[in-house]
Amino acid sequence: MPDLFAAPTTWQPALVERVLLLVALGGVAVAIAALLRARTRPDPPTRPAWAVPDHVERTDFAHPETPWLVAVFSSSTCTACRSTWEKARPLASDEVAVLDIDAVEGADLHQRYGIDAVPLLLVVDADGAVRSSFLGEPPTADLWSVVAELRAGDAAAP
Prior knowledge:
Elements: H1 11-40, E1 68-74, H2 79-88, E2 96-102, H3 107-112, E3 120-124, E4 130-135, H4 140-156
Parallel strand pairs: 1-2
Antiparallel strand pairs: 1-3, 3-4
């Protein structure tokens, strides 16, 4: 059995130097590999930005003669869409047309305006300009106040 406390022989310091050199080279190699991986790593995936039209052709929708249109783009399988429709429906009047555009029955309008996320609610003026929108289920108070403010601002315009 070797004596661990014996004076080192001539080959032991050279062995220790070589082991330390190998450890140092291994550390440098790991550091270089990490830098190269960080440099060539692809960017993280981006989340899609859902498109919201800024203008619609009012004649594409029922009641184009009304000053305001509240269009609810929806899907029959979407519970948030049903809730959004229930919040929007009471806004209907002689001045505001409120329409539910289902993804199946109104597929042509969903496709024409690039609607790929529902519920999407648009508040549109007589010229077809989208004056406000909600992607997802809007709070009732926010929806009603937006429509009221837009209508009041329209009435106040010369």
